[in-house]
# Entry
Amino acid sequence: MLSRRTNEIGDLYNHFNEMEERLYQAHREQVDMIAAIAHDLKTPLTTITGFVELLSIQKDLTKLDTQDYYELIMKKTKHMVELIDAFSMYTKNEAMFETIAMIPIAAHKLFDTIASEYETELSGFDFRLTWKHTFNPNQLIRINEHMIRRVFGNLFSNAVRYSNSDDLHVYLTGYVQEGYAYFQLEDNGVGVPNQDLSLLFRKFYTVDKSRQMSNGGSGLGLASCKLIIEHHGGQINAFHSNHGGLGIRFTLPLSV
# Structure
């Protein structure tokens, strides 16, 4: 009887420690996120403050110089709004996961629809999309289609923004392996350095801060993709593409 009581106390103690650790990690993530937001907002805000001071002090500016300063202020302000919107969307994703509806859909149907839509969109920029899959009509995935479409939207948007290629070629592939549907998107752009590959999905992480500012990135897009895919029971990772640029691969479990 004493041994059983001791085990129960030990289990309760371990459970309490685990709960304490989870609370600490959640608090740490909140602190890190607030620090990252403050850091990313400080840069454009400092620039805006500097331009406003110049406009107030230098009374002999030409109309052209004044207009340039106003345009730069608008650009930085827009970037701040985009950062706040991205953060709001990220936190909204986390809150929505408890209530989102998941419905079965044929993997090939989702793939064909996405490929057709983005082939048209990319052609409008004189870019190309090559796509192929080996899904069959009986292979279903249980998803929230709206959220998975946002994952594809983010990946295609990143390819266009950050490939640094005037002759962008995107490759979309789909296949099944060991009970999972695989979706793989690659490009022929400049790619990502080795040391950054495993860090791409961290919140607020960007390979190049100057590139982030010029292209309007927030550092939350791939983190949102990871959040969505993992909620669906899948995984997402980055790799060096044989086509020369970045490759992103994510999985979604097949419905039994």
Observations:
- The longest helix spans residues 2-57.
